[in-house]
Specification:
The chain is mainly α. It folds into two domains: 1-90, no CATH class; 92-181, Orthogonal Bundle (Arc Repressor Mutant, subunit A). The chain is 67% helix and 0% strand. The protein is built from eight helices and no strands. Helix 1 crosses helix 6. The longest helix has 25 residues, at 3-27. It is globular and about 50 Å long.
């Protein structure tokens, strides 16, 4: 078996749910998240790349998910407008933070795509401002502006849950987190 096949197998078997969680935070709904992960894995492994370890492959797939999301935002808006006709809503998480989770996900859905991506990369993925800028292909100043506008909007939508500037963990979502940076 070629090395990439083993990496692909391990990625899908062990890390797919984390990738779907990441895509869910960015996209705002589960069907779109599933599609983003599926498409990102296909795009990643359909070209000859040296992906011989799972961590590198996961990072590449995450980058592809983000790029796909940002590039196809307009088509997602059209699909989301019609989604209620086809798909039932996901069941609410069964834990004490279910209300917070629903409120945060709903508020994230209200943000423009780039603001939402900045919030997820900065506060969930715990990337630095420079890393977020590099991942998104924008300047650090743009990231700071997106975050400033997003945090202000989230405060308007969520009220005063906890300060997002002080505690990155204040976004209460049910998504696995990568190792600390």
């Amino acid at each position: 078996m070629r090395a990439w096949k083993g990496v692909l197998d391990t990625l899908v078997r062990e890390r797919r749910s984390r990738l779907v969680g990441y895509a869910y935070l960015i996209s705002g709904d589960r069907p779109t998240a599933e599609d983003l992960v599926h498409d990102a894995i296909i795009r990643t492994f359909s070209r000859a790349r040296r992906l011989e370890d799972v961590d590198r492959a996961e990072a590449y797939v995450r980058r592809t998910i983000l790029t796909q999301y940002l590039n196809r935002r307009s088509s997602q808006e059209v699909a989301r407008a019609k989604q209620h006709l086809l798909v039932e809503r996901d069941a609410a998480p069964a834990d004490e933070h279910a209300g917070e989770h629903d409120a945060v996900v709903s508020a994230l859905r209200e943000l423009p795509a780039r603001q939402r991506a900045c919030v997820v990369l900065r506060h969930v993925e715990e990337l630095s401002t420079a890393e977020t800028a590099e991942r998104m292909g924008v300047s650090e100043g743009a990231v700071k502006r997106y975050l400033h506008d997003a945090v202000a909007r989230l405060r308007d939508l969520l009220g005063d849950l906890r300060s997002m500037d002080d505690e990155p963990e204040s976004i209460a979502v049910s998504a696995p987190r990568r190792g600390a940076r």
